């Protein structure tokens, strides 16, 4: 009698490979890990751009890259493909996060959503006011929106570094606030940084939207079927003069929050297929065609166990967090410090305004708006969230990084002003992160002292 094979019977190389892959998979779903990778990419960019290899850094991102079919060709610098194409996938994930929050998360209840919405509004207005107070009437005033953004990956990752001592509701509040902040950033990009809109492009974008709706009505659930409509929508927005990454937001918000309707529930289908494959069902698979049909049904049932908005977001998260975002940071965080003249065209006030907006404006605006809503009796503080926790969220919300750099690139064509804005974003984000971690560690230590029993 032969003993059935077990995990121990597998070759040692295969066991080690499986364990390594499982470790990598766990690592890629940790928010703190994605923030660390993003920080490493930014540091590499800064070092690369300020050494003897700086010319190669700038030459790489200006290298032309083309796609074509026959005589049709589309050529753009590598920088364009990263900022305008890859970042569309990032905004797709953001759009799906917003869609989920509206459907079943912290934004599904209007009264529950009122407090993070007000806090996010305060966190946008206060930095913008501080920045404009320093740059009104100068060439740098167009960068008013740079310090209003929050980097979700960094903010949530930094909070995760403080461990489980931080109440879960604090993390939920920060996530809701950061998502609303991203929505505001998207609206700012669409309204204030998309000049000279071409109405003809909206017709093309509309065709893309209609294609998405048609596929959804047909019950097409595979994500790959929506690539072509997504490309049509992206091209339409590019033609309008609006930033084409907004196509990702539109697609994300249109992603269904319920699985495709099937004649049979996915779980019932899975149980029936397993019974057929094991010979316990009503129709036993006796030939290759029947086996292939059951396997196709199995893949369909497996796919439709989760709503498309969850399935696609889960699949894209590692690629965005550990691929697209670090590449964006590598391509945009490289500031050649020797090339920035802070005493020209008010560049120093651009940098100072961004730093002050992120480090001071964000926490003051978030805490002030929260206090006002609670004071007026319009909202109540979430359970487990103290005023110290709100200050902690305000400090971490000052880490703008990705979104702030992105807005800065839309705001300024002048390389000197753009360099000053990027420098302000990096310094302000680092200062906000350090202050948040120090304040957070003090809170965690104080909470542990309160919780721990006094020794007898």
What does this structure look like?
The chain is mainly α. The protein has a domain of 45 residues. The protein is 69% helix and 3% strand. The chain is built from 17 helices and 2 strands. Strands 1-2 form a two-stranded antiparallel sheet. The radius of gyration is 25 Å and the shape is globular. The N terminus and C terminus are likely disordered.
Q: What topology emerges from the helices and strands here?
A:
Layout: H1 12-27, H2 31-49, H3 54-61, E1 64-69, E2 72-77, H4 78-104, H5 110-135, H6 152-161, H7 168-192, H8 199-217, H9 227-240, H10 246-254, H11 266-277, H12 288-303, H13 308-332, H14 347-375, H15 387-397, H16 401-411, H17 415-451
Antiparallel strand pairs: 1-2
Estimate the global geometry from the Cα principal axes: globular
Number of strands: 2
Helix % is: 55-70%
Task: Report strand %.
Answer: under 5%
* Class from secondary-structure proportions: mainly alpha
Secondary-structure element string = HHHEEHHHHHHHHHHHHHH
Number of helices: 17
- Main sheet, how many strands, which sense, barrel? 2 strands, antiparallel
Family: Belongs to the NhaA Na(+)/H(+) (TC 2.A.33) antiporter family.
Keywords: Antiport, Cell membrane, Ion transport, Membrane, Sodium, Sodium transport, Transmembrane, Transmembrane helix, Transport
Organism: Pseudomonas saudiphocaensis
Catalytic activity: Na(+)(in) + 2 H(+)(out) = Na(+)(out) + 2 H(+)(in)
């Amino acid at each position: 009698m032969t003993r059935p094979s077990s995990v121990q019977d597998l070759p040692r190389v295969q066991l080690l490979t499986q364990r390594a892959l499982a470790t990598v998979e766990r690592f890629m779903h940790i928010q703190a890990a994605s923030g660390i990778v993003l920080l490493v990419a930014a540091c590499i960019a800064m070092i690369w751009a300020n050494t003897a290899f700086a010319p190669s850094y700038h030459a790489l991102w200006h290298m032309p890259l083309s796609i074509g079919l026959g005589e049709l060709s589309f050529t753009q610098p590598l920088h364009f493909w990263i900022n305008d194409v890859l970042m569309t996938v990032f905004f797709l994930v953001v759009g799906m996060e917003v869609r989920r929050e509206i459907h079943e998360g912290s934004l599904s209840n209007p009264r529950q959503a009122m407090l993070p919405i007000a806090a996010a509004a305060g966190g946008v207005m206060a930095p913008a006011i501080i920045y404009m107070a320093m740059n009104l009437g100068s060439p740098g005033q167009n960068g008013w929106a740079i310090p209003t953004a929050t980097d979700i990956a960094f903010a949530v990752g930094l909070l995760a570094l403080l461990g489980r001592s931080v109440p879960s509701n604090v993390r939920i509040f920060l996530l809701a606030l950061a998502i609303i902040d991203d929505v505001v950033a998207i609206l700012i990009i669409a309204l204030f940084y998309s000049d000279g809109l071409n109405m003809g492009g909206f017709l093309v974008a509309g065709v893309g939207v209609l294609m998405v709706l048609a596929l959804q009505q047909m019950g097409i659930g595979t994500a790959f079927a929506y690539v072509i409509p997504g490309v049509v929508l992206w091209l339409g927005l590019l033609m309008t003069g609006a930033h084409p990454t907004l196509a990702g937001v539109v697609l994300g918000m249109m992603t269904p929050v319920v699985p495709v309707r099937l004649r049979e529930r996915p779980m019932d289908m899975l149980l029936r297929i397993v019974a057929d494959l094991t010979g316990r069902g009503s129709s036993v698979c006796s030939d290759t065609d029947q086996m292939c049909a059951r396997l196709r049904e199995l893949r369909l049932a497996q796919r439709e166990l989760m709503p498309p908005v969850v399935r696609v977001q889960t699949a894209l998260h590692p690629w965005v967090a550990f691929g697209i975002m670090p590449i964006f940071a590598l391509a945009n965080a490289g500031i050649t410090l020797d090339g920035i003249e802070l005493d020209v065209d008010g560049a120093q006030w651009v940098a100072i305004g961004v730093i002050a907006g992120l480090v001071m404006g964000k926490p003051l605006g978030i805490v002030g708006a929260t206090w006002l809503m609670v004071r007026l009796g319009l909202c109540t503080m979430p359970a487990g969230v103290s005023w110290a926790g709100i200050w902690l969220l305000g400090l971490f919300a000052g880490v703008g990084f990705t979104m702030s750099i992105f807005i800065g690139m839309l705001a300024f064509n002048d390389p000197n002003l753009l360099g000053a804005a990027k420098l302000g974003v990096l310094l302000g984000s680092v200062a906000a992160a350090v202050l948040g971690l120090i304040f957070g560690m003090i809170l965690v230590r104080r909470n542990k002292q309160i919780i721990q029993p006094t020794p007898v």
